[in-house]
Amino acid sequence: MIVRIKILIKYGDRMNIIVAPDSFKESISALEASEAMKEAIIKEIPTARVAAYPMADGGEGFLDTLVYTTKGRVVELVVSGPLGNKIHTEYGVLGDGQTVVIEIAKMAGLMQVSPAKRNPMNTTTYGIGEAIVHALENDYRNFLIGLGGSATNDGGLGMLQALGVVFLDENEREVPPFGSSLAKIKKIDFGLLHPKLKESHIRIASDVKNPLCGKEGATNVYGGQKGATDVQMEQLDRAMKSYAHLIETEMNKKCQNKEGAGAAGGLGFAFMLLNADLQSGAELVANIIGLKEAMAKADWVITGEGKSDEQTGYGKVPVYVAKLAKENNAQALLLSGSLGEGYETLYENFVSCFSIIHHPMSLDDAMLNAKKLIYQQTRNIARMLVKL
Q: pTM value?
């Protein structure tokens, strides 16, 4: 009753609801999820004002969310994929017509590599550099780059090579652009780095805080999920330290121990060398799509993701959205594919937490029918809200 009184006094008889989910990974995009939520709410509360703000944090859906919400466009191109073979991919251009959006998962993503071939010794970020060069040659100078979901652990070696940096082995031959080459590098030359980068501004969307090397570094924390064995992780981390030392000596610049240097297998480090600004992915996206401003009129905010558990509280999209809601005296609800161990800790940020699963089913069935399940459970939530 208290919430309903607030709505009547502040906004009249029409309830103001924002839906701002992240993607339900490997299932549906944030855009699809937000559309399903909005449709369900309007079905049950036709008078409600419902605004959809699909979210992302730099990983899956980063490009689609920003292009859609700013009424931008995509540019199709061919680059080297994570295994070095040519792939068809895309980058986005925001509605301002000046800012390029690159989602590294679309060019060097883990989902682009079959489980049997996942091995960070054999993957590369070369295609990301090719995409940046393509944009530079088409007179773009502003970049938003989402670091998330990478299959790579090359410290940005491949990307830097594509941008013109020369890495030589003991025989003064250029090394191949793969993780296995890190240990072979003996000499580095930044003299041929693409000159137009000096005129560019790069912002990186990432919520990863890891340094480049060591126990909490890129290799030891994330290498295993990219297919590295324990022996390979030891070798890669040692090689990464040598690689970083050579670069920092050459450039007289210290970056490897900074927060975020270990993002995307060390791409964070490489972008720091290019003077990129690292920002919270969720905050960066929220600022661009206008979510912060929209919150001022919200009564209820519904967010979500593929799986929510205790880890959701550590910088993931739903909690960021919930905190924005709280700052604006709005009530936040969480709707996720599943609720895992420790999800109760999220009650600090949410009025309540819901799963889209309403009857026993396999994971495959849940992922295949995610949009329908989101719609159905959001209808149930809307029916509850209208009675408050």
A: 0.88
